[in-house]
């Protein structure tokens, strides 16, 4: 099966299950109760990025929806491109519902690439929520003024980009920048995307991207002040599995549009197929909430019921739009399908990316 066929199949699966996200595969009863308990919602990132905003959005809603109304607090375990926190979670045996873990594409990519730092196995964990998201690339006002739908006029500019690492979620923008012919020097080692935004604000970087929740909260004010200019979003998948404009940012062109308009960038071929595969893993099914594999069916059912109650809130669309944008929130069977899509990539796409990482950044995964 070709790389395009593989990623199209995954894309169509994600589109199909999103329509079932409120009800699919949910148990009818849950016996677990967390009255008087504290639930730790751990993410393997710092407090300043999109994952932190996502986790802190859901934490108080879980506090209200979980049986017994436990106190839900967000904990942070950044490091090693998020693999440190994921390795820690793999070793946890807390199975009473007082520990959940939130991953992102930055955690999924090292797994997909068989990074030797990875000592975690996604298939050991039990997914209870999958959140799609988007991302927006933006420039300082002076450079943004030179953007007219393509990036031909910025080919000679030298860009600095704050990055968590070439094998993190930043793989998607780094590969996009390379395909667009931009001269981008990544500064590796930041702990979260929010740190990249702070570099941009301090003038230490002149190109950046943020996932949707962080962009809405922290970059849109810069745009409103004339300090930043959005140039492209990653887009979203439509029902046919095609990349279309992100409904959260309908006025911002997609990477596919900008690529087609920029000399030398193509939306076909192995580079495009690889970018698209990691886009699906990193954004269409980007953030997931997991229970440890040892959690009982009753605990899993309690979380599934709680997530269903959250998504069924009459005000959910309103409150989530401001924090998360307009993206599917998948639970039950839909979350399981999204989980599989997020941790699956073809051998061809993996090999292309591994060669690119070695040749462009000297990153060798063995």
From TrEMBL:
Provide the family line. Answer: Belongs to the UPF0065 (bug) family.
Q: Is-annotated flag, keyword Nucleotide-binding?
A: no
Name the keywords, alphabetized. Signal
Source organism: Roseicyclus marinus
Q: Which domain of life is it from?
A: Bacteria
Q: Which PROSITE patterns match?
A: TAT
Record keyword Signal present? yes
Quote the protein name from its UniProt record. Answer: Tripartite-type tricarboxylate transporter receptor subunit TctC
Instruction: Extract the signal peptide range.
Output: 1-32
